[in-house]
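Hi, here's the filled form for the chain we discussed.

Project: internal
Contact: R.S.
Residues: 285
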Amino acid sequence: MEEAPTSTLVLNPDELGPDPVPGMDLAVKLGIQSLEIRSAEGANVVTLSTDRLRHIRTLADERGLTVAAVASPLWKWCRPEARPGRVDTFGFPTQVPPEERLAWIERAVRAAVVLGAPIVRVFSHLRVEPELTERFAGDPLLARALETARLAGVRLLLENEPVCTVAQAEPLLEVLERYHGQGLGLWLDVANLHEVGQATPGTVRALAPYVGYVHVKDYRPTDDGGRVFCPAGRGTVPYGDVLPLLHAAQPVLPYALETHVRDTPADALTTGAAFLRVAVPGGIA
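And the returned structure, exactly as it came back:
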């Protein structure tokens, strides 16, 4: 009798630095078989040449690893005349002229094809001055990007990012319902959902049918109203409530560790992997 498939752990090598090799070797050490590629060699994945992308894939192949997703910065942008706040886009510009955006979309899809990744992350425009903030729903490039991805055998997943226009449950559901039939799914960042006060059972149940990928990070509040990142399972993000609900709706999902723990990232990833192997119902490989 065949065993039922289980969810999978995913590790991003750039959590350990610009050289992807230490992160890949840590994945092997931890028994993690899948990678998320966001940047390498100090450059954003969508800016890398085909030769460099092939080199990354070779490094992964040599270790028996596959690339689960390309964590692109698509739509984490605004018009050149807008003034975004501090935004982490891993070496990609935030102010992108509209006429240059299709080329970046095509590069991201091509990167996924070269790396063998079935998923590309997208965002939903940066929130800037109200008169300059762009709407994601109805953006003519979105329909074109979804078709480009479909023809390439790749799927676009929208991350709920608080600095972008679509982060709350209501607009998320609106966009997902509108574009799900064209292939758009949800790249769910549970900590981001918690940050906007919506990591509740009702919201998670509503979003769960659209989830194709899960980002896992954790943090604790500080006395000055800030937050400090910590290994998954050691902070205030309610994974104990969320993970069973996700599993009930989607028994097989990729769970990608994203620590943001700068001082000891390898230790944080190791702790997070151990936590998820216990916390995800149904098992995780």
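Let me know if anything looks off before we file it.
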